[in-house]
Amino acid sequence: MELYEEKTKDITTNNILFMINRVSSDMWFKIKIGIIIAPIILLYILTYLIASNTILIIIAVMFFSVLCIIYACFIMFDILKKETGSEQMVEIADAIREGSEGFFSTQYTTIFKLSLVFGLYSYITFLF
Q1: Are 90 and 54 found together in one domain?
Q2: Are 20 and 11 in contact (CB under 8 A)?
């Protein structure tokens, strides 16, 4: 498999994939089982230690949020391991990426300026 960095010049992605490829499949299985079982066992233990249901619900939401983020990372790693395509496809993807980054920087700059103006307008209106 050709290195991701050689096709797209993305060093961070290449470093992440390098670390992920060093983990064996048996270890991946253990990590996945641990991610699924550990929050459930921890919540079960915390139900006996914490008297307030509100705190327990907050802790449960935090645990499952972290679990979802970890699952999203697994999906990202799986997508990044896929083949990037031919040289022409990579050139087109790089051009699209460059255009979208320019568009988003322009869009966010405009939104920031408008929100600053309307924020100051709201503040001044509130004072008087």
Answers
A1: no
A2: no
